[in-house]
Specification:
The chain starts with 5 loop residues before the first helix and ends in a 15-residue tail after the last strand. It has 2 helices and 2 strands. By secondary structure, the chain is mainly alpha-helical. A hairpin with a 6-residue loop joins strand 1 and strand 2. The protein has a two-stranded antiparallel ribbon.
């Protein structure tokens, strides 16, 4: 699996939360001061920026601190290090030679037609 390092993930998460909250608070203050007419609801975008920053930053901090991190690209067999998100998806296995998905009920590879038993 190709994964970002723990320190870059941690720093990206911390900076994302700090910068997002900072920009969101400035956005809210400016929008509250200048909001007239249609733009009086413009400050809600600042709350959205803060929410996105907290969710994204939390994801990166989790990736830095968790034992089984989320991977950017799966390159190894799933038995070596499981992807925490895979439990929410089907238990399909990727055929590494052709890149096609082989389902448990298939008797042949959908890419090359070879017997998979």
């Amino acid at each position: 699996m190709v994964k970002t390092g723990r320190v870059p993930s941690l720093m990206q998460g911390v900076v994302e939360i700090i910068a997002g909250v900072f920009v969101g608070v400035i956005w809210i203050n400016i929008a509250d001061q200048t909001g007239q007419g249609v733009f009086r609801y413009f400050h809600y975008a600042g709350y959205v920026v803060i929410l996105i920053a907290i969710v994204g930053g939390s994801y990166h901090i989790y990736n830095a601190l968790a034992k089984n991190r989320f991977s950017e690209q799966d390159v190894v067999f799933s038995g070596q290090e499981p992807d925490p998100f895979s439990r929410f998806l089907d238990d399909d296995e990727l055929n590494l030679q052709t890149g096609n998905t082989v389902n448990k009920g298939d008797n042949f590879c959908p890419g090359c037609g070879k017997d998979v038993r």
